[in-house]
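Quick check before the chapter quiz. The format below is the same one you will see on the exam, so make sure you can read both the input and the output lines.
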Amino acid sequence: MKAFSRHIVIFARFGRDARVAEMLLHKRAIATTTVDSFDALVEAIDPHIGGVLLTDESLSGANLSSLEDKLHALPSWSDVPFIILTQRSRFERVHHRGLAGMLPARMTNLVFIERPASALALTSAVEAALAGRERQFQIRDELRAAATMNERLSAAEERLARSHAELERQVEDRTHELRETNRRLMEEIQERTRAEEALAHAQKMEAVGRLTGGIAHDFNNLLMALVANLELARRKLDRDHAVLPLLNNALRVTERGSKLSGQLLAFSRIQKLVLQPVDIDARMRDLMDLARHSLGVSHTIEAHFAAESRFVIADSNQIELAILNLVNNARDAMQSGGVITLSTRTRVLDDADTELPRGEYVEIKVSDTGTGISEVALHRIFDPFFTTKPVGKGTGLGLAQVWGIAHQCGGTVKVESEFGKGASFSILLPVAGSGSEEPAGTLPASDGFAADAAGAEGTSVLIIDDDDNVRESLVAGLEMDAFEVRDAPSGREGLAMIGEDFPNVLVVDYAMPAMNGAEVARAAQKIRPGLPIVMVTGYSDTAALDGVANAEVLRKPFSLAELSGHIARLRRSAAGP
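Here is the expected output.
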């Protein structure tokens, strides 16, 4: 029976971590073995080592299944301690949770040490791990001694005549064991059922997300054709024509459609956050009508906006989605009605706040007079798929999405609640500045007439788009601006039209069958190196410009004036000073 060994296996592939650790541990009379590969680490792990010291980046790309198999093969009493050196970052909780999630389930004896770590912290952690490991060996020896004693007692009991009372006791014990086994089996069945339901729900949400993304893309194409044709109609009218206000109103409606499309894409996670300055008070006022529409007749909503026109760095659509999520949660917490309060204010955080850096922040608060949140649920409120709502009434993703949006924008979300007395959720976002600039994200305002088309004459444009309505509208608009325009319904047909003198600028849709816009753009620049390209797309997060030079992305729906401006700018850039 091999005794306990104060021996540590070190695995740190990069930098001087391994050498420094060896030096520090040798001073503590701790033996070490340093391995240079993951396979060597797995090979070095046996039931008798004292522990493992490794860096998190050393696990990058490793096949952890072999480690999992090795740990499962160890005796049940052996729980090898792992000391993991990690990098400190603002997102350490997310990093540690993700790292722990990918580690083998048998790898439970973990200690995380953030770098840079002091020598005392490192050696103390190793000494503590070795002390715990030594206790495992002691327990092993005690268990074996106990097992030996139990064997002797059993042998003695077999030589005794069993009385009727003893037999009854044994039957009772066995019955109790069977009941306990049955209880554990039922718990395992229930846990598996919950896991299967969660998996099915996650798969359903993923499918819904893909469907929503496809719908949003097609909706963008419809909006694009509508916007272009409305602009064309406006250009053909005099500035005092009676129909012009009606067309302008229709275009304003398309802006709302564009925002809705952006929200659908955000839900489907096809697009990433677009961080830009956002006037929070102005955005909250715009949001009030939409928030009211989501409430019942027994609910009222109040507003107190006092952020003093502060701008924050955020994604306007995503912040709007987060606030609506909180409003809907507040509504659901007040089945019999109540008051929801939306408020904003500026806050200055100092070093006492452990979650955010010191500085000025805008706080967006959504409060309700509902049932509140229990203390148990409060600790899990932002966990994905955790919900206190009845089955079929909630996905458990809303608050997780709010948490993710806030953190991606450089802020956080906090919750305060007392069970039975309502709840308040606060989104804190760092201040970017103040001013009167209007945030990007909507179609530009226009009086309904063409912008200055200087430079259009003599500029040839090739438009490639598989949507006939969109393509025809763009052709008509550019021709009205005096561009020389040709068009093609597919990438292959468009590439066949590119020669030495044509076109000066290529306008190509990203989402097309057979060849997408990125493939067409790269092929076009092989024929005409440096050809200026405008990539139009219904998404905001694509690989549209990968490997494409002298190009810009224009997201649908856009105005004809925007397209003309992009073409003119690229044309001037290609022509040089």
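If your answer matched, good. Residues 164-235 form the longest helix (72 residues).
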